C-alpha cells in the first residue's frame, strides 16, 4: 500500500463581488498550466438555489506523477455561499457579475511508492523504510517543499484574483 502524507491543508475565505465563471476558469487554468497535472477532474458539483441566491459546492481532485516513486495528489474544494447575480457600473458600463462568499480549501498529499513496488512482502517494506529513512530523506524534504509551495501559491493566486475582482 502506498504511503500517503498530507503536506498541505489550508483554506481561503472571501466575501464580496467577483465573477464566479471567471474565477472558476482562472482556478482551473492556473492549476493545469502551473502545476502541470497529469489529470484534474471535477468529482463533485452541487448547486442549490434559495430564492435568487445559489449555494455551490465543487470538489476537484488531481494528481501528478513526479518520479517512479513520488506522486502529488491534490484536492480542492470550493464553497460558494449566497451567490447572487448583480450589476455593477465599470467606467459607465453596466457589467453583470456575482456577489457572495467564497471558501477555497486545498489539500496536498505526497504519495510515496504509489506503484506499490515495495509492498510485495515484509522484506521489501523494510527496505522501503530504510530507503526513505537513510538514503533519500533530503529528497523527501524536497518533494514536500515543492508540494507545499504549489498548494500555497494556488491559494495565494485565488485570493489575489478575488481581491482584484472585488476592487474593480
Task: Give the overall shape.
Answer: elongated
Instruction: Compute the average pLDDT.
Output: 92
Which sequence of SSEs, written as H and E, runs from N to C? EHEEEEHH
User: How many alpha or pi helices?
Assistant: 3
Helix content: 25-40%
Q: How large a portion of the residues is in β-strands, by DSSP E?
A: over 45%
Major sheet, described briefly? 5 strands, antiparallel
Identify the strand order in the major beta sheet.
1-5-4-3-2
Question: What is the CA-based Rg, rounded?
Answer: 20 Å
Stretches with pLDDT under 50, minimum 5 residues = none
**Quaternary structure classification:** single chain
Number of strands: 5
The count of domains is 1
Structural classification: alpha+beta
What is the terminal separation in angstroms? 50 Å
Amino acid at each position: 500500500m502506498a504511503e500517503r502524507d498530507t503536506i498541505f491543508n489550508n483554506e481561503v475565505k472571501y466575501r464580496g463581488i467577483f465573477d464566479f465563471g471567471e474565477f472558476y476558469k482562472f482556478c482551473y487554468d492556473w492549476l493545469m498550466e502551473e502545476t502541470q497535472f497529469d489529470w484534474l477532474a471535477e468529482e463533485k458539483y452541487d448547486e442549490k438555489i434559495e430564492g435568487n441566491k445559489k449555494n455551490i459546492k465543487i470538489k476537484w481532485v488531481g494528481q501528478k506523477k513526479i518520479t517512479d516513486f513520488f506522486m502529488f495528489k491534490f484536492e480542492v474544494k470550493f464553497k460558494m455561499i449566497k451567490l447572487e447575480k448583480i450589476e455593477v457600473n465599470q467606467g459607465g458600463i453596466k457589467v453583470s457579475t456575482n456577489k457572495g462568499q467564497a471558501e477555497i480549501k486545498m489539500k496536498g498529499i505526497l504519495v510515496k511508492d504509489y506503484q506499490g513496488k515495495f509492498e510485495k512482502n515484509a522484506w521489501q517494506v523494510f527496505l522501503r523504510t530504510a530507503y526513505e529513512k537513510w538514503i533519500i530523506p533530503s529528497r523527501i524534504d524536497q518533494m514536500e517543499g515543492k508540494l507545499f509551495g504549489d498548494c500555497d501559491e494556488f491559494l495565494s493566486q485565488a485570493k489575489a484574483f478575488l481581491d482584484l475582482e472585488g476592487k474593480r
